[in-house]
Amino acid sequence: MKATPEHHQRIANMTFASVYPHYVTKVEKKGRSTTELHQVITWLTGFTEKDIQSLIDEKVTFEVFFEKAKLHPNAHLIKGVICGYRIEEIDNPLTQQVRYLDKLVDELAKGRKMEKILRS
Fold first, then answer.
1. How far is residue 44's CA from residue 37's CA, in Å, rounded to a whole number?
2. Global pTM?
3. Of 22, 40, 49, 76, which one has the greatest count of Cβ atoms within 10 A?
4. How many Cβ atoms from other residues are within 10 Å of residue 111's Cβ?
5. Could you read off the pLDDT of 43-55 as tens digits, one per residue?
6. 107, 91, 111: which is closest to 41 by C-alpha?
């Protein structure tokens, strides 16, 4: 599936604060905790718990969110399909980074072991 420039722009303009509650709901519904969610976000982005809350409060877009992030060196190991797109084939770096996060949240909700999620 090939994403359009409009699709990439829509993702860039979406706020982290608007998606975050869906991440929380998804993982909690499957018996995982917000602490584990934050651990996953921290691993990918380098953000602390305080940073995450601040980014939510500021209602930053995903574009700003990932500009401020220090992506984990093993992020490229995140592979697979999410939302109909094969992550490793996404040519837009920002869209790929957002899909990395989506994939990690999905793996957490599916009960995958944390060591595997964090690619250690």
1. 11
2. 0.94
3. 40
4. 9
5. 999 999 999 999 9
6. 107
